[in-house]
Design goal:
By secondary structure, the protein is mostly helical. Helix content is about 85%, strand content about 0%.
Length: about 220
């Protein structure tokens, strides 16, 4: 068996999966912006209109949090840079995504406060907040294990498979949270137009295919 040829094939397929992931990821961003800006009231965290505040939540939780998490995962295995640069960009993108995610989550709580609604009552909120907290813990564990100079190479080697597995699992949990969130929002809207309903569905499909492509890219990239 030609190991070099196999590595080249895996690298080519990983690069293709990365391109596909970028396509669906950016497509989902565009579709979500069209939905929130054209069909809904717009996006504004400090607005007196509760719906504008609520729109900050899906925008930042996907475009700010989930999209950047996917980019961070792909960067570590597919970016043409030194290993140290890959690690720093990987951790940095995750950190930016977490910060934007905090703002996105606070927007949902702000919306509930404005309308005197109860917090954390839906399946979407349970999955979403659990995913966010676990990913924050994953980031902290990764920072102490892979970025801290006092961490031994043996510890890093033992932790790496669990770090990768946890990241991939949390990616899919994030996708589930996003899709259940879109379903919940569509239910809240009730009798929306057929065009808006299709737009929400296509946005959900783009997010799903983005997640699957990211996972393929990461899985194939490990064989480079």
């Amino acid at each position: 068996m030609d190991v070099s040829a196999d590595r080249t094939t895996f690298k080519r397929h990983s690069s293709l999966s990365t391109l596909v992931a970028h396509f669906f990821g950016i497509l989902a961003v565009i579709l979500m912006l069209i939905w929130l800006l054209h069909y809904r009231e717009g996006i504004e965290y400090g607005s007196d209109n509760p719906l504008k505040v609520l729109n900050v939540h899906p925008f930042l939780m996907y475009c700010g949090f989930l999209f950047l998490v996917g980019q961070a995962m792909m960067t570590y295995k597919t970016a043409y840079a030194s290993h140290q640069v890959q690690k720093m960009v990987h951790g940095g993108l995750h950190l930016i995504g977490l910060v934007l995610g905090i703002v996105g989550i606070s927007a949902a709580f702000r919306f509930h406060d404005k309308l005197n609604l109860k917090d954390m009552v839906s399946l979407h909120s349970w999955i979403g907040l659990t995913t966010f907290i676990l990913l924050g813990l994953q980031w902290l564990a990764g920072a102490f294990t892979f970025l801290a100079p006092q961490s031994s190479s043996g510890t890093r080697a033992r932790m790496m498979p669990w770090h990768v597995l946890g990241g991939r699992a949390l990616l899919y949990m994030g996708i589930v949270a996003a899709l259940t969130g879109l379903m919940q929002r569509a239910t809240m809207l009730g009798q929306s137009t057929n065009a808006e309903s299709r737009l929400i569905n296509f946005t959900g499909l783009a997010i799903l295919l983005f997640g699957v492509s990211v996972d393929f890219s990461v899985a194939l990239g490990r064989y480079n």
